[in-house]
Design goal:
Order of helices and strands: HHEEHHH
Distance between the termini: 38 Å
Low-confidence stretches: 19-30
Strand content: under 5%
Number of strands: 2
Helix content: 25-40%
Mean pLDDT: 84
Length: about 130
């Protein structure tokens, strides 16, 4: 059906089509993932990322450190599809991974650093600012 045939639809179908488009369009917004990390403060997360010396192994913009290359660059972490190459990049997964990487992805070289859930929320909020 092309746009010219839209007027031929039964009014109920037309209304349904309009509602479907509205629902789909609402999911297409560019909502920032950092705003979806409930209870997360990106600036506190940046400071915690520095405190835990994450830059010893990763390149992380805005974080002081040696910008190591033992781990992958986190420069675009906020827009990557996966965490550690295989975990869907969603806030709750990020929080769990930051708290205990080996428990979420066995075999990872990233150690558990004793990060609390609240600290992980802040750090996840910061990670989603990296785009």
């Amino acid at each position: 059906m092309n746009i010219c045939q839209y007027d031929r639809l039964h009014p109920a179908w037309r209304t349904g089509a309009m509602l479907l488009c509205a629902v789909l369009a609402s999911g297409c917004g560019s909502q920032d993932k950092s705003s979806r990390v409930e209870g997360g403060d990106p600036e506190r997360g940046r400071l915690l990322t520095q405190q835990y010396q994450c830059a010893a192994c990763h390149f992380i913009p805005e974080v002081q450190g040696t910008n190591g290359d033992a781990g992958p660059s986190l420069q675009y972490m906020g827009r990557l599809s996966y965490i550690a190459g295989s975990i869907p990049n969603q806030p709750e997964n990020m929080i769990r991974f930051l708290q205990n990487p080996p428990a979420v992805k066995p075999g990872t070289l990233m150690p558990a650093l004793g990060i609390s859930e609240q600290e992980a929320r802040h750090m996840a909020a910061f990670m989603y600012t990296l785009k």
